[in-house]
């Protein structure tokens, strides 16, 4: 039986199975990824992160991300912080700052002296085609009909798609009831992450995110970036914002249009393990939208 060696990591409770594929290819099928990510039948995680060799000389590694539903996605901010901690801990790099290729472009995570990680998450994009968002205008606020209710959302791409709305009380927000409807809304042909942002003051917000393919997670790095960008475009927050999520806070900085978003926060190794890879005859649980969801 083949065995997958992995490292379990977490960034503010957003948890990952990290796989070193620098010397052998990552070949799990979507069904096997779902079982690996399942919290009852497998190891359990929000995403599976894969470290691969670079495809060009101007980057250090390639970074692939698979959601708990088995689908590959473009970007994961909390995972990016875990990425740099992982490659240093495993001796794959001794650099404090690395250039990493993702499906949505190059990101640059840097390990700080205090152990936290700062990531250049790239420049946010607002053109509807970049999200993609059918029928969008690129305006700071768009109207979205969700099951007969009009919702005001800020739509943008942080390398992956986000729809952020402002709520009065994030704890009372309809994340679990409305989030799936926004995620799978027909105007988002690649689905979308649904963010719910409460403005505390101009330097602090509270945030919950319904992530596509994973459900609500304890933290979402790209969601925190998207929320601050959305808040700035609406004139609600300043350049530097602390984003409080259920897993803990992230520090986000965005100077404005045409500038990258900077994210700073923790990342930690939890344990190392070996997982027997189910063979062709294994009984793998049927696909569900959010196989890891226990919260």
**What is the H/E order?**
EEHEEEHEEEEEEHEEEHEEEE
Largest sheet: 18 strands, mixed
Low-confidence stretches: 291-295
Structural class of the helix and strand makeup?
mainly beta
- Dominant shape: globular
Q: Radius of gyration from the CA trace?
A: 18 Å
The share of residues in extended strands comes to: 35-45%
Percent range for helical residues? 10-25%
Distance between the termini: 33 Å
Residue-averaged pLDDT, rounded?
Answer: 93
Strand segment count = 18
Number of helices: 4
What would your notes on this structure say?
- With 295 residues, the chain is mainly beta.
- The protein has four helices and 18 strands.
- The chain has helices spanning 30-37, 77-89, 175-183, 221-233; strands spanning 3-11, 14-20, 47-52, 61-67, 72-73, 100-102, 105-111, 117-120, 142-146, 149-157, 161-166, 193-201, 204-211, 215-216, 240-245, 248-254, 261-265, 268-276.
- The chain has an 18-stranded mixed sheet that branches.
- The model is unreliable at 291-295 (pLDDT under 50).
Question: What characteristics describe this protein?
Answer:
disordered C terminus, 295 residues, 18-stranded mixed β-sheet
Please summarize what this structure is.
This protein is mostly beta strands.
Secondary-structure map:
Blueprint: E1 3-11, E2 14-20, H1 30-37, E3 47-52, E4 61-67, E5 72-73, H2 77-89, E6 100-102, E7 105-111, E8 117-120, E9 142-146, E10 149-157, E11 161-166, H3 175-183, E12 193-201, E13 204-211, E14 215-216, H4 221-233, E15 240-245, E16 248-254, E17 261-265, E18 268-276
Parallel strand pairs: 2-3, 4-6, 11-12, 13-15
Antiparallel strand pairs: 1-2, 1-18, 3-4, 4-5, 6-7, 7-8, 8-17, 9-10, 10-11, 12-13, 13-14, 15-16, 16-17
């Amino acid at each position: 039986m083949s065995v997958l060696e992995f490292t379990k990591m977490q960034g503010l409770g957003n948890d990952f199975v990290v796989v070193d594929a620098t010397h052998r290819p990552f070949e799990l099928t979507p069904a096997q990824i779902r079982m690996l990510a399942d919290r009852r039948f497998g190891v359990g995680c929000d995403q599976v992160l894969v470290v691969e060799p670079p495809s060009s000389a101007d980057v250090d590694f390639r970074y692939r991300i698979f959601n708990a539903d088995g689908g590959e996605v473009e970007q994961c901010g909390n995972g990016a912080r875990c990425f740099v901690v992982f490659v240093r801990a495993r001796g794959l790099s001794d650099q404090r700052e690395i250039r990493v290729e993702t499906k949505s472009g190059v990101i640059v995570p840097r390990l700080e002296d205090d152990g936290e990680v700062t990531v250049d998450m790239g420049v946010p994009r607002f053109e509807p085609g970049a999200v993609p968002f059918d029928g969008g205008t690129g305006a700071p606020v768009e109207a979205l009909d969700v099951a007969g209710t009009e919702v005001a959302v800020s739509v943008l791409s942080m390398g992956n798609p986000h729809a952020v709305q402002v709520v009065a009380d994030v704890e009372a927000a309809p994340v679990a009831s409305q989030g799936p409807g926004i995620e799978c809304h027909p105007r988002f042909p690649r689905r979308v992450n649904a963010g719910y942002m409460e403005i505390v003051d101009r330097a602090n917000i509270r945030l919950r995110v319904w992530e596509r393919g994973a459900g609500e997670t304890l933290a979402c790095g790209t969601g925190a970036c998207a929320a601050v960008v959305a808040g700035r475009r609406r004139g609600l927050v300043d350049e530097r914002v602390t984003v409080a999520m259920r897993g803990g806070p992230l520090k986000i900085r965005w100077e404005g249009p045409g500038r990258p978003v900077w994210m700073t926060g923790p990342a930690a190794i939890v344990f190392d393990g070996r997982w027997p890879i189910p063979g062709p005859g294994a009984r793998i649980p049927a696909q569900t939208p959010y196989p890891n969801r226990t919260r």
